[in-house]
Design goal:
The protein is α+β, with helices and mostly antiparallel strands. The protein has 1 helix and 7 strands. The chain has a 4-stranded antiparallel beta sheet, with no helix packed on it.
Length: 139
């Protein structure tokens, strides 16, 4: 077989493999993309502002019973945000109202981290005014 014929057969095999790989990639891409119509949106709670908090900016943490915990950047009795619990029935309970200053913090905007029955997070304020880490003990 001539070198030209061998080269042509090699190119045909390469082109065939490339076409097969393209088909596989496209097939998996189409099959793996979920339909947007299959999604469901459910409103769980609306913050009314004031003492119940306002402007939740961080993510939520779920406990083993399905309750959600989070923070709001504003609202609360001092207007500096709260840490809250949202029960599985949709009842919101403020757990802490941030007062600001050097020992209490203000305007939390972090997701609460659960550890050993406590919640940990960050907020503005603190001794130097550049933020602080806090621990919230759950009862």
């Amino acid at each position: 077989m001539s070198k030209a014929k061998q080269h042509q057969n090699c190119l045909s095999g390469t082109a065939l493999r490339a076409a097969a790989m393209t088909f596989v990639v496209l097939w998996f891409g189409i099959v793996a993309i979920p339909s947007a119509q299959a999604q469901t949106f459910t409103l769980l709670y609306t913050f009314p502002g004031s003492a119940s908090g306002a402007e939740p900016l961080a993510g939520l943490t779920r406990d083993g019973k399905g309750n959600l915990y989070g923070t709001t950047n504003g609202g609360g009795g001092y207007g500096r945000g709260i840490a809250f619990k949202l029960s599985t029935t949709g009842l919101e309970s403020p757990l802490h109202q941030f007062k600001g200053g050097t020992s209490d913090g203000a305007h939390p905007s972090s997701t609460l981290l659960p550890q050993s029955g406590n919640l940990y997070g960050t907020s503005g304020g603190g001794v130097y005014g550049f933020g602080m880490v806090f621990e919230l003990t759950l009862k």
